[in-house]
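Researcher: Go.
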Amino acid sequence: MPELPELEVLVKNLKGRIKDKKLGKPTVINPRVINGDPNLVENKVVEDIKRRGKWVLIFLDDLYLAFHLRLNGYIFLLDYKEPDDYDCIILPVNGEYIHFGDPRRLAQMKITKEIDSLVDELGIDPLSDEFTLEYLTKNLKKKRGNIKTFLMDQDIISGIGNTYADEILFSARINPTRPCQSLDEGEVESLYKSIRDILEEALSLGGTSTEEFTNLISREQSFEPRVHRREGEPCPVCETPIVMIKIGGRGTYYCPKCQR
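Model: Structure:
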């Protein structure tokens, strides 16, 4: 699943290609993932593109296009109109074509005149000025669940998913099964720093390398996870084999020696 760094880079690259350009008549292949009337976007100018949490938001004259890619969704900007196997909609723009799709048909596209109800329910962006140590501390004290689930709660912190939750906890040397309220002051400070450091590092490297995003995200370099999906490999710090457990139905990877 694309997370904050991948989506931020996608938005930056997409913005550089289509901002101030006019959309043409859309071709709808699978309307199931679309909420709203796609025909409303024809002849609308792209005024801006932003990310909010895991949503990609395209600002038009008097409309918004909101995309959520879920696990396997994609947004490609291609030079051909013909639909690919999993495309759901194709939007012409300045001689190129936005292909939005998902093999599993779980991604979402919303065409709406307002986005407040969509973004207001999201938690604070972890790279924003509003995300402070005090905010993190206050919310940890309210939660009785484990720290891994906390990091992925989009109502509290928006944009962190499975991959970066594992990497943040490894950086902070915190076991993912730890109850939120068990963290002491020093551990909370370490967690706060790791959230910032890992996301900023990944963002500077273009996100984690995935084949799904080779069209709009450069792969000249990429963030390489230290523990995520590295079950059985030696920990980069102590060489203890990385283990995998399930938390909330998701594979969770950590070092049982380094992370306490």
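Model: Residues 49 and 58 are 5 Å apart (CA to CA).
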